[in-house]
C-alpha cells in the first residue's frame, strides 16, 4: 500500500494546509535540511485574536457543528467507523487452519507474546493428540520471565556501574526493568531453559491476570537495588561483595514471585480425553520433557523477520541491552521488505501452520468489528485531514512501533494476491469476531513489524544472513519494542 500523503488529505482551507501543500510540491521526501537555521522569535504565544479567528473559521462550516454533535458523545472508533471498509472485508478466508483452538485471555497484563507463542505451539499438539481443547500455561513462563528479567536488570546495573546515573543508558535501564512485554527470542530463551507445562498444572492467579501491582512492587525494589550496588561500587566494594549483594536481591524477588504466584511445578501430570473420548495420561513429566516430547517444536530453529524500512534489507540486527535470560542467545532479526514477509507467511498458512507476528495493533482498529485497516476509522471526513507519515517516518518520530503479538491463522488470496489475514488474539471472546481479528493487506504493509518462521520455510539466502555480524541498534530503538 502507498500511504496517502498529508498533502492529499488535509483540509485545504487552513494556512497550515496551504503550507503543507506548497512544501509537498517542492519536495515530497524526508530529507535533512541543509539550510541555515531560521531566526525565529524565542516564543510565540496564542493570542486572543488568533482564537477569535479560529472560532470564526470553524463556525463558518456547518459540517463542523454536525461533527461536534456526533463525535463529542462517543469514542472515535465507534462514531467514525467506516461501514464500506468493514463490509468489503468479511471474516471469510480462502486459506484457514483446520483447528480453531479456544480463544485465550491475557486480561489486565502485557503477556501477549507468551500467549501468542504458546497458542502457536499448541496447534501441532492438538493435531497430534486429537484434542478439541488445549491451553498451555502462560503463568508458568511469566514466573520465570520476571525472575530472569530481574537478574538481567541487575547484571546490566553491574555492567554500567561506571556510567553516569543521569546518562541515557542508565536511565533507560531504570525506566521499566521488568515490564510484562517480550520478544520472540525471549520466549525461546524461557522455554529452552524451563520448558512448558499445561495450564491446569500452573493456572492463573490474581497477579498473573492483573500484573501491575506486582510489577510496581518488584520495580521499586530493583531501583533500590541499583542504588545499593552503585553506592557499594563507589565506596570501593569488590566484585565478590557486589555479587553477594545481588544474590540476596534475587532471593527477595523470588520470594515476591512465590508469594504472589506460588511455586512453579517441577513435575506435572497431563491427563485428557481425545475427540474419540479415549482417556490419556502422562505422569511425572518434567516441564522440559513436556516441551521436548509432547510439544515437539524446536524453537531454536526459528527466525525473526522484521520490516524496518529505515534500515538496510538482508541484514542482521540486534538491540543493545534487549533480552531476559542471561547467557541465552541474543535477540536477532533479519530485515526484509514487507512483501517478503507477506509471501512467506502466506505459504506457511497455506501449509496448515500458524505464524507468530508482532504489530502496532491499536492503529486504525475497529474493536467492535475486529478489523484493522488504515481507513476503518474515517478521520478525514470528520476532521478534514489525514495522516502523512510513511512507515519509516512513523518509526523515526515515535509514532509507531510493535506493541502486540498475535497469531496468523488464515489468509484470503485473490488473483494470487493476499487481501486480508485472520488473527487469533488473546483478549478473550468479547473483542472482534469471537476473539478473532481481520487485518487487511494494506494494514499489514504499514503496521506489521515482525513475523517468526522456521528456517526450513525460508530461502537459504535469507537463512545465511544469520551468519553476518549483527548491526547493533541502541536500546531505545523502536525495534527493541516489547509486545504487550
Automatic annotation (TrEMBL):
InterPro entries: Papain-like_cys_pep_sf, Pept_cys_AS, Pept_his_AS, Peptidase_C1B
Keywords, in A-Z order: Cytoplasm, Hydrolase, Mitochondrion, Protease, Thiol protease
Organism superkingdom: Eukaryota
Keyword Protease: yes
Cellular component GO terms held in the UniProt record: mitochondrion
Pfam entry (one): Peptidase_C1_2
Reactions it catalyzes: Inactivates bleomycin B2 (a cytotoxic glycometallopeptide) by hydrolysis of a carboxyamide bond of beta-aminoalanine, but also shows general aminopeptidase activity. The specificity varies somewhat with source, but amino acid arylamides of Met, Leu and Ala are preferred
Enzyme Commission number, as recorded: 3.4.22.40
List of catalytic residues: 112, 404, 425
Subunit structure: Homohexamer. Binds to nucleic acids. Binds single-stranded DNA and RNA with higher affinity than double-stranded DNA.
Sequence similarity: Belongs to the peptidase C1 family.
Function, in words: The normal physiological role of the enzyme is unknown, but it is not essential for the viability of yeast cells. Has aminopeptidase activity, shortening substrate peptides sequentially by 1 amino acid. Has bleomycin hydrolase activity, which can protect the cell from the toxic effects of bleomycin. Has homocysteine-thiolactonase activity, protecting the cell against homocysteine toxicity. Acts as a repressor in the GAL4 regulatory system, but this does not require either the peptidase or nucleic acid-binding activities. Has aminopeptidase activity, shortening substrate peptides sequentially by 1 amino acid. Has bleomycin hydrolase activity, which can protect the cell from the toxic effects of bleomycin. Has homocysteine-thiolactonase activity, protecting the cell against homocysteine toxicity.
Protein's name according to its UniProt entry: Cysteine proteinase 1, mitochondrial
Origin species: Coemansia erecta
Amino acid at each position: 500500500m502507498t500511504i496517502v500523503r498529508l498533502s492529499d488529505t488535509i483540509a485545504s482551507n487552513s494556512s497550515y494546509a496551504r503550507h503543507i501543500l506548497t512544501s509537498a510540491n517542492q519536495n515530497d521526501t524526508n530529507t535533512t535540511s541543509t539550510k541555515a537555521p531560521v531566526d525565529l522569535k524565542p516564543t510565540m504565544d496564542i493570542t486572543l485574536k488568533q482564537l477569535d479567528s479560529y472560532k470564526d473559521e470553524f463556525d463558518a462550516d456547518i459540517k463542523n457543528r454536525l461533527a461536534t454533535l456526533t463525535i463529542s458523545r462517543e469514542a472515535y472508533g465507534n462514531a467514525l467507523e467506516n461501514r464500506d471498509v468493514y463490509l468489503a472485508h468479511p471474516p471469510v478466508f480462502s486459506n484457514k487452519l483446520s483447528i480453531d483452538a479456544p480463544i485465550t485471555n491475557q486480561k489486565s497484563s502485557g503477556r501477549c507474546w507468551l500467549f501468542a507463542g504458546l497458542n502457536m505451539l499448541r496447534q501441532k499438539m492438538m493435531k497430534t493428540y486429537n484434542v478439541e481443547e488445549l491451553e498451555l500455561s502462560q503463568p508458568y513462563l511469566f514466573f520465570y520471565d520476571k525472575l530472569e528479567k530481574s537478574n538481567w536488570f541487575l547484571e546490566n546495573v553491574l555492567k554500567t556501574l561506571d556510567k553516569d546515573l543521569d546518562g541515557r543508558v542508565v536511565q533507560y535501564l531504570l525506566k521499566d526493568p521488568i515490564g510484562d512485554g517480550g520478544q520472540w527470542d525471549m520466549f525461546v530463551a524461557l522455554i529452552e531453559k524451563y520448558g512448558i507445562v499445561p495450564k491446569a498444572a500452573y493456572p492463573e492467579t490474581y497477579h498473573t491476570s492483573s500484573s501491575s501491582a506486582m510489577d510496581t512492587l518488584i520495580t521499586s525494589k530493583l531501583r533500590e537495588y541499583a542504588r545499593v550496588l552503585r553506592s557499594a561500587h563507589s565506596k570501593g566494594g569488590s566484585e565478590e561483595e557486589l555479587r553477594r549483594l545481588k544474590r540476596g536481591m534475587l532471593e527477595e524477588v523470588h520470594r515476591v514471585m512465590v508469594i504472589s504466584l506460588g511455586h512453579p511445578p517441577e513435575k506435572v501430570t497431563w491427563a485428557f480425553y481425545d475427540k474419540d473420548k479415549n482417556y490419556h495420561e502422562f505422569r511425572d513429566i518434567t516441564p522440559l520433557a513436556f516441551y521436548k516430547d509432547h510439544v515437539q517444536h524446536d524453537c531454536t530453529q526459528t527466525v525473526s523477520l522484521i520490516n524496518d524500512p529505515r534500515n538496510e534489507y538482508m541484514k542482521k540486527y540486534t538491540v543493545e541491552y534487549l533480552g531476559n535470560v542471561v547467557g541465552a542467545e541474543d535477540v536477532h532479526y533479519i530485515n526484509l521488505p514487507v512483501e517478503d514477509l507477506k509471501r512467506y507467511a502466506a505459504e506457511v498458512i497455506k501449509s496448515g501452520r500458524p505464524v507468530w507476528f508482532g504489530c502496532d495493533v491499536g492503529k486504525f482498529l475497529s474493536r467492535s468489528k475486529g478489523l484493522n485497516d488504515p481507513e476503518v476509522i474515517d478521520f478525514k471526513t470528520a476532521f478534514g485531514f489525514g495522516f502523512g507519515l510513511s512507515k519509516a517516518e512513523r518509526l523515526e518520530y515515535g509514532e509507531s512501533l510493535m506493541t502486540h503479538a498475535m497469531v496468523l491463522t488464515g489468509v484470503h488470496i485473490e488473483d494470487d494476491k493476499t487481501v486480508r489475514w485472520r488473527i487469533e488474539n488473546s483478549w478473550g471472546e468479547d473483542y472482534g469476531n469471537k476473539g478473532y481479528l481481520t487485518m487487511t493487506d494494506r494494514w499489514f504493509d504499514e503496521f506489521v513489524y515482525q513475523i517468526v518462521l522456521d528456517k526450513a520455510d525460508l530461502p537459504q539466502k535469507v537463512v545465511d544472513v544469520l551468519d553476518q555480524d549483527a548491526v547493533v541498534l541502541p536500546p531505545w530503538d523502536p525495534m527493541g519494542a516489547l509486545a504487550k
